[in-house]
Every structure is written in structure tokens, then in C-alpha cells.
Amino acid sequence: MKMDKKFSYVPLFLQWVLNILLTLLALILSVFLVKETFTIYQIIFNLDGTPAIDLLESILNFFLYFEFIALIIKYFEAHFHFPLRYFIYIGITAIVRLIIVDHKDPMDTILYSGAILVMVVTLFIADLRKKSSN
Predict the structure, then answer these.
(1) Membrane-spanning regions, if any (predicted)?
(2) In terms of domains, do 64 and 91 share one?
(3) What residues make up the domain containing 111?
(4) Tens-digit pLDDT profile for the chain (134 aa)?
(5) Are 65 and 109 contained in the same domain?
(6) Are residue 29 and residue 94 in the same domain, yes or no?
(7) Which residues does 22 contact at the CB level (< 8 Å), separation at least 6?
(8) The whole model's pTM is what?
């Protein structure tokens, strides 16, 4: 019994470390989000000679940063719990970005599309379970 009480502060300490590091990560991602916004501005107004096709990739990068920041916010709002839905949203966005950036092999594109379908079905099942539990 004394051993349990002796180390009872460890989870609390680790939770604090995690919270501090997630806050730092959110700040770093915010800087990248602002940088990506500036890149989108440059592409739209063609200030640096970047091809317009890169606009879509930059927009998807923007949303990936945005979703990770939203995930960290939800973590704190949900009292230190990561909602599964947000990981699935991030995964879908990441695979869409991958399809847009690397679409040379049709078989890979079909497999990526299948992965998106699996994630959408997972979201649907999770929503059904959530509605049935309420």
C-alpha cells in the first residue's frame, strides 16, 4: 500500500508534461499554419512563380495543420482525451493530400481510395454507436 501512495504523483506529473508539450506543439503548428497561409497567398497572386497546381497541395497542408490544432484543442476540452473521430478526419485529409500529390500509379490511388472508404465507414459506425448510446 505504501508503494502505491509513494508513486501516486507519477501520473499527475506525466499528465502535466504531456499538457505542456501539447501546448508547445500547438504553438509550433500555429506558426506552420501562418507560414502555409502566406504560401497560399503567394501562389494565388503568383508572387514567387510557383505553379498554380501547388495551390491544392498547400490548401490541404493548411487543413492538416488546422486539424491537428483542433485535435489538441479537443483534447483539452474533452478533459485529456483524444476523440477518435478527429484522428479519422486527419487520416482522410492526409490520404486525399497523398492522392493529389502522388497519383502516378493507378493501383496506389485505388488502394488509397479504399482506405478513405474504410475510414468513412468507420466514422459512420462510430456515429451510429454514439446515437444508440444516447
Answers:
(1) 12-35, 55-74, 86-103, 109-128
(2) no
(3) 83-134
(4) 455 777 888 888 999 999 999 999 999 999 999 999 998 888 888 777 777 678 888 898 899 899 899 999 999 998 888 888 888 988 998 999 889 888 889 999 999 999 999 999 999 998 887 777 76
(5) no
(6) no
(7) 72, 75, 76
(8) 0.76
Give CA separation, 84 vs 41, 53, 81, 90, 125, in Å.
33, 32, 9, 10, 12
Coil, strand or helix at 105: coil
Q: Are residues 94 and 57 in the same domain?
A: no
Retrieve residue 109's grid coordinates: 490511388
Helix (H) or strand (E) holding 129: helix 106-133
Could you give the number of structural domains in the chain?
Answer: 2
Q: Does residue 58 share a domain with residue 7?
A: yes
Provide the CA 36 distance to its chain's centre, in angstroms.
15
- Evaluate whether 82 touches 72 at the Cβ level (below 8 Å): no
Q: Are residues 71 and 114 in the same domain?
A: no
Q: Are residues 1 and 58 in the same domain?
A: yes
